[in-house]
Amino acid sequence: MTDADEQGPVGPPVAGDETATLLGSLERQRATLAWKCGGLDAAGTRATVGASTMTLGGLLKHLALVEDHYFSTRLHGRDPGPPWNTVDWDADPDWEWRSAAEDTPEQLMTLWQDAVARSRSSVTEALAAGGVEQLIQQTWPDGRTPSLRRTLIDMIEEYARHVGHADLIRESVDGLTGEDPPR
Length: 183
What we know:
The chain is mainly alpha-helical. It has a single domain (about 5-175), classed as dinb family like domain (Four Helix Bundle (Hemerythrin (Met), subunit A)). It is built from 7 helices and no strands. It has helices spanning about 5, 20-35, 40-45, 55-75, 95-100, 105-130, 150-175. Helix 2 (about 20-35) packs parallel to helix 7. The radius of gyration is 17 Å and the shape is globular. The relative contact order is 0.19.
């Protein structure tokens, strides 16, 4: 995967194999989220649209949690690390959304970037052990166990949904619009 600032747009290859296409699609969503959340001050990361309480800071923190949950806990069966392991999720199930207002834009971006780096490493580790067809470690409540392929698709969908939210919020902050980060 290439970085948009280095070699043009980030995204799946035009005619790549399944793994490259899945990873490229995920990287495009990550790059778009980074662009939509980048360069903002604290007020920008706390802005909301309409009746929603969703913020760009909350999106960064939520997606950092989702990255760690999908690619560490679910994929490899590892225990959650900081800061997730210090939260009483039963008492505060929306902790990541609520607590993001207490963090600086730099803290939020770093938290998310570090989670993405761990996820990339976890997926690389899993792919080296077997392809996208391998089953992950965590079984669903109904007893089925999804593949890494399904987990990647689920993560792409999670990002795509939240990138749409980020589009609306960011446009309300400073008018930034568009689908892809500048090349």
